[in-house]
């Protein structure tokens, strides 16, 4: 049986791997490091991990090649991408290629622990939802509610749905909410503010005091913000895809943004 560890960090900068090791081991987590993408893939063959934190800009096997090879291997471990070359394109591409989250370098200890805790909770939820091979005859429990089929999502974080009037509703996924333990407070932008695909458009606070940024699925101008959700975050937790929407926006260029999203209909295939 392959040995199980908590986190694999793949980064060619020792200062980064050492920082992740120091911060995460202080929280009681086990951490392995690899300084090349190929070495990280080899460790995935040898051990089972609950979470991978992988740099994008690496020689030979970069982060996107790492994502592709992990998918070919059938690796189900959630992967978080990170890079010092933080661009909207890198963030969006990371999520559209299968990463569950993205964190820019340099990051603080709180930022790292926030994304790591979400990633570990994501792994826990996925293990509950998709039973191991030995138990596939048993029905999986409904650990989270998937977004409606006609919606599109950015990773597992946020969703959007186009409206007949030409506007779009934006919100946060039930799975994201489950990874933070539910919303205790919500901070939104103002009407007429601009939002951009892949950038933070809202912040959701959890009961432990942490703040969790929400990446926007599409770009546009805010024409309405859900004040009811701000006043009572429980609305978002109870009904994240309908009454718990966050924004109504006038999209800037949906034809350019939508190809970078995943259709929620694929979650039911």
The CATH class assignment of the largest domain is Alpha Beta
Overall shape = globular
Number of helices: 9
Radius of gyration: 18 Å
Low-pLDDT sequence parts: 133-140
Q: Per CATH, what is the topology of the largest domain?
A: Rossmann fold
Sketch the major β-sheet: 7 strands, antiparallel
Question: Could you give a quick summary of the protein structure above?
Answer:
With 269 residues, the protein is α/β, with parallel strands linked by helices. It has 9 helices and 15 strands.
Structure description:
The structure is a single chain. The chain is α/β, with parallel strands linked by helices and 269 residues long. The chain is built from 9 helices and 15 strands. The strands form 3 sheets. A 7-stranded antiparallel β-sheet has the order 10-13-14-8-7-6-15. A 5-stranded parallel β-sheet has the order 2-1-3-4-5, with helices on both faces. The protein is globular.
């Amino acid at each position: 049986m392959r040995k199980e560890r908590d986190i694999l960090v793949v980064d060619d900068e020792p200062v980064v791997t050492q920082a992740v090791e120091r911060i995460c081991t202080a929280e009681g987590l086990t951490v392995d490091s690899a300084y090349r993408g190929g070495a990280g893939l080899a460790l995935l063959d040898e051990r089972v991990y609950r979470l991978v934190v992988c740099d994008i800009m690496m020689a030979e096997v970069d982060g996107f090649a790492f994502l592709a090879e992990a998918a070919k291997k059938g690796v189900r471990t959630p992967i978080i991408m990170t890079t010092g070359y933080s661009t909207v394109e890198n963030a969006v591409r990371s999520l559209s290629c299968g990463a569950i989250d993205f964190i820019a370098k340099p990051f603080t200890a709180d930022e790292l622990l926030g994304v790591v805790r979400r990633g570990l909770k994501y792994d826990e939820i996925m293990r509950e939802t998709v039973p191991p091979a030995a138990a596939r005859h048993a029905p999986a429990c409904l650990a989270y509610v998937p977004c409606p089929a006609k919606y599109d999502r950015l990773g597992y974080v946020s969703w959007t749905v186009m409206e007949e009037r030409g506007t779009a509703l934006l919100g946060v996924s039930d799975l994201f909410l489950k990874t933070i333990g539910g919303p205790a407070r919500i901070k939104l932008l103002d009407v007429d503010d601009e939002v951009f695909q892949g950038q933070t458009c809202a912040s959701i606070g959890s009961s432990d005091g942490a703040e969790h940024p929400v990446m926007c699925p599409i770009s546009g101008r805010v024409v309405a913000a859900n004040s009811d959700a701000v006043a009572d975050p429980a609305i978002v937790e109870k009904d994240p895809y309908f009454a718990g929407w966050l924004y109504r926006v006038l999209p800037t260029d949906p034809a350019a943004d939508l190809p970078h999203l995943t259709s929620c209909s694929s979650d039911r295939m």
